[in-house]
Amino acid sequence: MYETTIAGSLPKPVWLAETEKLWPRWKLEGEALVQGMRDATILAIKEQEDAGIDIVSDGEQSRQHFVHGFLVGLDGIDFEHKVRMGIRDNRYEADCPTVVAPVKRRGSVHGREARVARAHTKRKLKWTLPGPMTIVDTIADRHYGDRAQLAMAFAEALNEEARELEAIGVDTIQFDEPAFNVYLDAVKDWGIAALHRAIEGLRATTAVHICYGYGIKANLDWKESLGREWRQYEEIFPALAKSRIGQVSLEVAGSHVPVELLKLLDGKDVLVGAINVATDRIETPEEVAATIRTAARYVAPERIFPCTNCGMAPMPRDVAYAKLAALAAGAKLAR
């Protein structure tokens, strides 16, 4: 009960990439970069284990960004001529590649690092992939001309990758969908259908992560505009409860999400965000335990997996791992 895990990314070591940035530049090139990614993956696993995390991940150490890190392995995408565009309903701008031809997986995208991760931990291993809707929202399109159709094309590529990850020995495959908290009608119209295509045929545990974003200024400003209660989850949780996704990862700690909304996920495992990634303040184990106990009023304890609110890539590395230790200690208290 209360197995701990993380939402996705972890800060990269100073020797691998720029620090405390969402889109960091690599400091290595060629074979040195490949070796550096391998070493950083092993280190991330080791430090998660030392912190007491039960279900570990690679910390996305081989990806510059959680979306674009997958897209680099696909055909049909032009990375040479990026487009400056608003994403997450124009919450902030990013330099995005463009779809210029049919999207197709060129070959294994994350297989190499997944094998490294699987070989260096005996704990359950989770792998994160960007969800179809969030990919569509983080790329320009000059080919499909229809967001739902484009999402399905990406879902097919994601499914191929997920099947390979499962074969390597990944226990949980999670699709990151922060866009689900923005385009609420589209989630029900085609977002969940695209997720179903992405998980088709999988036997591994499947999860979807839906949060209010990294702890960067654009997201913090957006949160300030949402008022005293954040009720986006109320719009989409009933549909997710009926979906074939096994787990839902969400934001609780330090947020204005009414915790009673968790009861709308009846029948699902819930990855309860008990660590706030929008602040460098390190939670106490007692605070983490209190968040877990509050969630347990609305979700069966055996279905609760204490987690971080979101990825931690832009955070100071020492702070991130101290927060993971607090997460594990708090879960132990709650048990």
Distance between the termini: 7 Å
The percent range for strand residues is 15-25%
CATH class of the domain at 30-63 and 113-126 and 161-334: Alpha Beta
Helix and strand element order: HEHEEHEHEHEHEHHEEHEH
Percent range of helical residues: 25-40%
Structural class: alpha/beta
Biggest sheet character: 7 strands, parallel
**Which word captures the global form?**
globular
For the largest sheet, list the strands in their spatial order. Answer: 1-4-6-7-8-9-10
CATH architecture of the domain at 30-63 and 113-126 and 161-334: Alpha-Beta Barrel
If you average the pLDDT, what whole number results?
93
Number of helices: 10
Overall radius of gyration: 18 Å
Q: Uncertain regions: pLDDT < 50 for 5+ in a row?
A: none
Q: What is the number of beta strands?
A: 10
Named CATH topology of the domain at 30-63 and 113-126 and 161-334 = TIM Barrel
Structure explained in plain terms:
Strand 6, helix 6 (184-199) and strand 7 (205-210) form a beta-alpha-beta unit. The model has no long low-confidence stretch (mean pLDDT 93). The chain is built from 10 helices and 10 strands. It is an alpha/beta fold. The chain is globular, with a radius of gyration of 18 Å. The longest helix has 22 residues, at 30-51. The strands form 2 sheets. A 7-stranded parallel sheet has the order 1-4-6-7-8-9-10. Strands 2-3-5 form a 3-stranded mixed sheet. It starts with 29 loop residues before the first helix and ends with a helix. It has helices at 30-51, 68-71, 111-119, 132-136, 147-168, 184-199, 217-224, 232-241, 285-295, 317-334, and strands at residues 55-56, 74-87, 92-105, 124-130, 140-141, 172-176, 205-210, 247-251, 269-275, 304-308. It has a domain at 30-63 and 113-126 and 161-334: Alpha-Beta Barrel (TIM Barrel).
